[in-house]
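Sample 3 of the quickstart, ligand guanosine-5'-monophosphate:
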Amino acid sequence: MSCLFCKIIDGEIPCTKVYEDDKVLAFNDINPIAPYHILVIPKKHYDSIIDIDEKDMGIVAHIHTVINKISSEKGFDKTGFRIVNNCGEDGGQEVKHIHYHVLGGKKLPVYEN
Ligand code: 5GP
Ligand code: ZN
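Result:
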């Protein structure tokens, strides 16, 4: 398996874990753009959100539940945060294993067109 994030799940590539259960792994981004920059990924490989069937969408709800848990554990639930999912080339997705960026710990810039 050549997927970078599958290698992180398998422990072939190290990461700083924030949360783990049987379905999901959360770890610090290697190149953070905010005081908290956490990546949350399903352990099952999907290239991106468009590869998840309706019947499997429960994993997305689970990821959001995990993000809530992490935000309250770290304390940035009170100050707010941003969840980002880049999809495909125009979306700026570099790693082709679906992941949710969780950004917090500072006032984030407003999106520009
Ligand atoms: P994308 O642009 O695909 O939405 O985001 C990929 C993210 O993965 C980037 O923020 C990048 O810094 C992060 N990343 C790339 N390689 C590694 C790695 O080996 N370890 C960790 N922890 N993060 C990585
Ligand atoms: Zn993968």
